[in-house]
Structure prediction request, 146 residues.
Amino acid sequence: MPALPGLEVVRSPIHGYGLIARRDFAVGEIIAWVDGVLYREKDILDDTYALWVDEDWYLDMVDQTRWINHSCDPNGEVEAELDGAGGAWARIVAIRPILAGDEITYDYAFSVEFAEPCHCASPACRRWIVDADELPRLGARLRAAR
Prediction:
């Protein structure tokens, strides 16, 4: 897989591998276009590197963007949608200034059913990789499991 311009895969203090900026990115700038394979949810065997696109459609990331880690206080976000021609597109966009050397992150915003412990170490860490709006449901689910 060819390297993405201005980015590098490295070992991450957040989790496993991560993607760092090798140049500065301004707010609103496209960090990377995502290369992937479109699947219906029912057809995904492993969704580890899949982005939710719409309804039951996911894009399995097959380039370095798959190494972007979650953060509860991210510097990037995913924009994705179906293209109307049987495919989809996705890109990672800077939501705040990113300096060379910064790890690229976005908020995975998992639903409660897929929540997992978070290790982003951000001061805003929710302690769970879950959509912030789902925290009350997650709390109730965790209490019920005790």
About this structure: The CA atoms of residues 26 and 97 lie 5 Å apart.
